[in-house]
Fold:
Amino acid sequence: MLVLSNEAIAGLISMRDCLEALEPMYRDLAAGRALLSPRVDNISPSAHPGAYYAFKHMGGTWPARGIQALRINSDVLTHPLVDGKPRRVKAPLAGGRWVGLVLLFSTETGALLAMFPDGVAQRLRVGATNGIALKHLAREDAKTLALVGSGWQAGAQLMAALAVRPFTRVQVYSPRAQRRDAFIAEARAAHPQVQIVAADSAERCVQGADVIMAATSSLVRVIEPAWLEPGVHVSCIKAQEVDQAVLDGCERVFVHARQQAKQIDHILPGTPNVSAEHGWWNAPGNRFDTYPDVGMLVTGTAPGRQRAGEITAFVNSVGLGLQFAAVGALILDKARAAGVGEQLPDDWFSEDVHP
Amino acid sequence: MLVLSNEAIAGLISMRDCLEALEPMYRDLAAGRALLSPRVDNISPSAHPGAYYAFKHMGGTWPARGIQALRINSDVLTHPLVDGKPRRVKAPLAGGRWVGLVLLFSTETGALLAMFPDGVAQRLRVGATNGIALKHLAREDAKTLALVGSGWQAGAQLMAALAVRPFTRVQVYSPRAQRRDAFIAEARAAHPQVQIVAADSAERCVQGADVIMAATSSLVRVIEPAWLEPGVHVSCIKAQEVDQAVLDGCERVFVHARQQAKQIDHILPGTPNVSAEHGWWNAPGNRFDTYPDVGMLVTGTAPGRQRAGEITAFVNSVGLGLQFAAVGALILDKARAAGVGEQLPDDWFSEDVHP
Structure:
């Protein structure tokens, strides 16, 4: 059983690798050759004031690569106000660290093959999924990208966008000016061929943009319906960053996966501050369930952009355990080839009694 | 992060410990102070002839002990015929071993606290749950126990039965005579105060019994409705060991947990031999959803046995991740006190990026 670190994984796989790894998985999912298991959140009160404990897991079986993945998050969650808007912030209480894990099993033998923290893989798969949608939905001649957000996810969104379109200008907005400027400095170093500039409001950020990517932890919309110009593509990493009013202003909308449009929430009575995050799916007027998904997009069952003036959107709604099967299979191959990671005795993670 | 072996766990906890650990969990579940997550099975074809791959997981949050448990099974499953009847048999293909794991997390910090193979804990929790039901449903003066089955689970059923009633005689049947006789020899050594004898058919096994316990891997019923005598209590570890016809002959029936009456099955098209195991829940005439459960039994919301002549039954239907939270909390306490297990670096199972 191989234990890998985020650092090792970051050295093994690139955004382009992830884009290549995910697309065949979406094709198999669309064709009924891969299985999801539902995303389940167990939510209960925490001893920490205003916080709650959230245990989340989601699985995916991808027979083509012989991999079963399970992604687990064990978080103490808070909803602080930043710039007057509530955010979803995980408190690092596990020795000052967070707890997100991916487990990979063999569908041929059942064996636990690997475990690793989810951070690097999680960020790359979110970016790659938005990148795949962008490839099919943004204008071919898209040149200016508006990026709303400057956190951990925003960097991967930028990498994915640049991997599928030759953007020449990126406009970045975050309410945290210091964080935004640090992000821009890092992004300029990573992508020296692109002009990367700061915007001092979300509205100014999206002006003149061919593509708007939201990559925030906001629990309320960060894009206003009035901002949508003909031909723009809107992309987000959380359903809450846009709302039905924004999507109603778009002519062609895709979600991540129809089979997993909803998550299963189990919420213990008395848990504080949960409502802002959960229950979005059932909000009145929400038509989330009616949109086609990435599997339909990559197989052509539902076509991508048809006209230059069309307003398109992709909502990277509920994540899929299958993304971790696809990216995980790639990580495992590369780690084995490179001899990276801690090898633990397989007997610790198996047994000689019929369970 | 503590890694424990089945051998270590067997040395730490007893059946009586498990009976004590589980009952307060069922009270909390009944009172809305503990959370289940659904049992999910992902079923897909396997490269092994006639076999399929089954990935199963179920979670449970028990705030009273600050524990989130997740139990995972990663199995290649076969359905061989034994004595003409189909059985559910897991193939040990992970280096000759099986793969069942329990992960325990802290609901206070999110940290992964422990991992261990599920075998010993799984057997004890199944036994303890049937034992709790037996305590409330069998006659106080029960003296003769019929045990149908002589495998890994049967030993725990016997331990649980003897922990809650002073049985003086045990009649054991299994179609595998050699296995049955070996089981009886072991059982006599473990329980020298009890007369333990072989029966050469299931029908003869149940004759004169005050309690009938099935503990098999059968996918079809092993008890016939005509065998039920007034005053008997019927207990099983799999819903398929009894069927609606058997339950219709009982006056007072309990299931494990109404909140988890069904499992969620995701079955990939083309997977062989699955039907005998799955789909039981929706069989015509099945009234499984109408029975009260163990939480209601231990809190008195649904009363146990009311008359000596009543025929009662307990169907230990779908397992609960919460059983592993309860037994797991106990194992963790005892392992820490005894200094048992392999301590791995917590940093391997956490991360410094907000996932």
